[in-house]
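Q: what does this look like with glycine bound?
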Amino acid sequence: MQKTIKPLTKLKITSTLIISVIIFASCVSSQLGKNDSGEFKNGMVVTAHPEASKVGIEILKKGGNAVDAAVAVQFALAVVYPNAGNIGGGGFMVYRSAKGEVNALDFREKASAAASRDMYLDAAGNPIVDKSLYGHLAAGVPGSVAGMVEAHQKYGKLSWKQVLQPAIDLAEKGFEITKRQASELNGLHRRLMDVNINGTALVNLESTWQEKSLLVQTELANTLKLIQQKGKAGFYEGAVADSIVAEMQRGNGLITKQDLKNYRAVWRKPIVGNYRDYKIITMPPTSSGGIALIQLLQSVEPYPLKRWGHNADSTVQVVVEAERRVYADRATHLGDPDFYKVPQNTLLNINYNKKRMTDFNWASATPSNQILAGVTKGKESEETTHFSIVDHDGNAVSITTTLNGSYGSLVVVKGGGFLLNNEMDDFSVKPGAPNMYGLVGGEANAIAPNKRMLSSMTPTIVEKDGKLFMVVGTPGGSTIITSVFQTIINVIDFDMNMQSAVAAKKFHHQWLPDEVYIEKDAIDSLSTEKLKAKGYKLVYRGPIGRVDAILKTKLGTLQAGADPRGDDTAIGY
Ligand code: GLY
């Protein structure tokens, strides 16, 4: 028995669950592995796209473990969710085995060996608009294929051939795009044609894309077949590497055959911290996410959030003041640990984080220019994707992966059929420059040859009493850390179930600009007035985060949270 859990709006959750209980009780209550509350015992896959979730669950049902399913999902997302799923990008995996072994894999992109600190500056030393964002020069050396090979070799159970096959089938035979995808691809038609003058499978030359149009990607299928046959060499050497390098030469990009051949994914020690009675296992640098997440949790732990209530003015104030301080630290102290000594022990010290909150004043908002730290980059792209998987034995995988911008650099490798990332924009393009307050920073994340660019991606696993409790993560650029943090406290402090915690409206502060971004209806009118009176500048904006998460209940069942902000889909069995 398999059930697809469609994303629900917050208001619909209760009634839909009640209806589900009635339907299950009357129709399928004898099915194995499922109880009558829509929770599942054997496995759960939550991804940004229904087809990718189907791939993951089928792999689990064939006897694959969570890593097999994750590898299959990563490749499937490269086909069915090309705005962020990828083989031309990178990402991070946090893993926890059923026995409690934890690990973290860094398959973040790297700068080419030919990259240089000032490569996006003009003769006067000013950043050239969009140079790090669009076109071939924006691409870092992709890491996703190396990451999947590494993860599968270490933990996989099914054959490499088996885990690649679903993505090949989806690319070769095509799949029906969603309404949202049809609208996105129609909107991108001209820009995709500008960058890819010979066309790409993502451009419909005959008419417009519609919901359920079949998207067939033959070149991508051929690339995936080479990866299936040759593993890492199928991408980083031979015909695919040749086509990446030819693409670079066409568009004045930097990636060389040597860059591709030299690329390695790196196993890193996860960041592990505590919050109340829970253990948080999360991603270390090159992501800033894990350290920032633990800092946020440590900063708010002394406060009675539960008593104050979800998104009540006191809760919002404490969270915003914690975020202000943590994001200031992030801008100054975080970068690729292979190039920069990140002061990890200090940042993760509970006394340090408590002290950072001592100058916080209940009467008024702390102006961000009084929080000493370095420059932060401007807007970070929010188009990334996250998936969470738990298998029958209880192994758990949390992967966040990205091309950076939506559809990355928009460059589709000719002959290869896959998009290249624009991850170079995640470096500090102009480090060392004073910001508007005269503060200097950003060195930790300066561009250097072969260096990884800083990320906010925060794939996370939570334990309680030594057992798996939650698998969580999200896209959202700089809002990733906030969304993961708020989803965790929604469950731990505000007793929400997984779906409610994911769907709950969120807010975000990132030190600079000194504004609190909020989703519509996130904060009630009385709390809004109180916060405004204290000097908080509230700015309404569109969706924050797109969290896909799994909760293991006290009964041992798996409960999903698939974000209603997208086409995200949970399937359990
Ligand atoms: N490109 C988004 C991130 O790495 O955080």
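The pocket of glycine is lined by residues 381, 384, 402, 404, 426, 455-457, 477, 480 (CB under 6 Å). The mean pLDDT is 90.
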